[in-house]
Specification:
Blueprint: E1 2-8, E2 11-17, H1 22-43, H2 48-93
Antiparallel strand pairs: 1-2
Amino acid sequence: MAQVTVTINGRGYQIACDDGQEAHLSRLAGYLDGKVGELTEAVGQIGDTQLLVMAGLLVADELSDMREVEGDVADRLDALAARIEDIAGRLEGT
């Protein structure tokens, strides 16, 4: 098992991860650190715990929005597939 040190809000955290996942974990930590930075600019230093909870909620909100969009796209693709199958069926019948 690999170990990665990530920095969030200027503090280092030693995190274990699967071998080969170090770069991915570092990218995720960088994204979270960016969210914490945005919050710090907006509300100031209010404590690591509260900043991390707020950043986690922002990321969860983004994920929720993406899942909603994903569902909409899937529904549209299903509708298009049905239309294509209908057209193909009509073309085969001619």
